[in-house]
Amino acid sequence: MKLSKVLFDSFLFLLFFHLSNIKTSACNEESRHTAAVQSVKHAAAKPRVRRGSQGEGSKKDAGNLGYPRLIYSPTTGLPNVNQMQNDSSQSPTWGPKLKNSLYPLSENSLSAYGVLLLSLVVFAVGIVGNLSIMCIVWHSMSMKSAWDSILAGVALWDFLLLFFCLPVVVFQEITHRRLLGVLSCRIVPYMEVSSLGITTFSLCALGIDRFQSITSSQLSPRPVEQCQSILGKVSVIWIGSLTLALPEILLWQLNQERSPVSGLISDFCVMHPSPDQLPVLHSLVLTYKHARMWWFLGCYFCLPLLFTMTSLLVTLRIVGNTKNMKNSQCQRQLSWIVAGLAIVYGVCILPENITNILVAYTSLDLPENLLTLITQFFLFLKSAVTPVLLLCTSKPLGQAFLDCCCCCCDDEGKTSAASDDADNSTKLEPLHPPYSGNDAALQLGTPC
């Protein structure tokens, strides 16, 4: 009995001790949960700091340490489009974004569409016209003269100018970026000035050719010459023009600036010689820069106009005293063609000289980018109008162009008929060469 009583008392003591431990752990757990809830409420009551931003203390520390200030997102919660473009333009993975002046449609985009439309028309007319002049002179046996070869040389350079320079200028106007970077910034002005030189010296050479043709004893107004003589005259024109335009390569530099609004980079070319050049070369380029305006006005504007007008007056004076009416009429027509080319060239180069004078001697706040674009488009317009003028005023060139067009149209209509009659014609008569020995010496106007 005593043993059972002792065991029962021990069991009651252990049970009481265990219940007291359970109650203590429950109270501790409840206190922990209450503290956690209070800490959560206290944290929620504090102002939350956005991710990627800094508090006042961190801002002060960053300012003291010289760290760059972070960019805050807008208060509206929407992403900042300008900042996204700025970050993508500076990213090493993604390339720099291009400005699209054609979209969205607004008042500023209308000028871009106008430039694009005008450039397409000038490009199409100039490419077709200059290619026609070159092909006609190349394939025509009756046009192997200095006159037609000089015109073909002008057409070749006008074709190169339109094909390579016009897309670069239009691309820069629309996107404000420069194709090929520094290379195009130097090559495009070089080709433009070379075009001025080739046209200038070609007009002078045509005036000399008119005077020699009038004073010579040959009856043909455009005598056929040897290839060596033609290549010599054309080489003098091209080598002289390309040599005089060499300072343009060392004069132009490419500058870039970032827009503070959109963060996009804009390219523009400036006339500023590089200081890394040799001292002698740098001084020569600076001298050319200061004399460039008067050089353009005297050599590329006044010289061809005065030379052409003088040769025209002398030619008309000599032709008026000749008795051969047919030859004098042809000589007079060719002289007026040269005068027409000189007038078109003078009108198209006049904005360049006016712009240079206004920028140099006036204090007007003129938009230089707009003036540069206008002068360049006038030069491209000259390259497109010159072959059209030649095809309209020169009878041999115009007739050869019409013959080629008619020949192409007739070939499309007669292809089926020629294929049907080919077998019958071979049975009726034997094959023979199209030209005999005497026929090979005939002068054909076109390859058709």
From TrEMBL:
The keyword Cell wall biogenesis/degradation does not apply. It comes from the Eukaryota. One of its GO terms (molecular function) is G protein-coupled peptide receptor activity. The keyword Disulfide bond applies. PROSITE patterns: G_PROTEIN_RECEP_F1_1, G_PROTEIN_RECEP_F1_2. Residues 129-390 form the G-protein coupled receptors family 1 profile domain. GO terms for cellular component: cell projection; plasma membrane; receptor complex. Residues 38-67, 416-438 are annotated as: Disordered. This is G-protein coupled receptors family 1 profile domain-containing protein. Belongs to the G-protein coupled receptor 1 family. Pfam families: 7tm_1. InterPro entries: GPCR_Rhodpsn, GPCR_Rhodpsn_7TM, GPR37_orph. Residues 1-27 form the signal peptide.
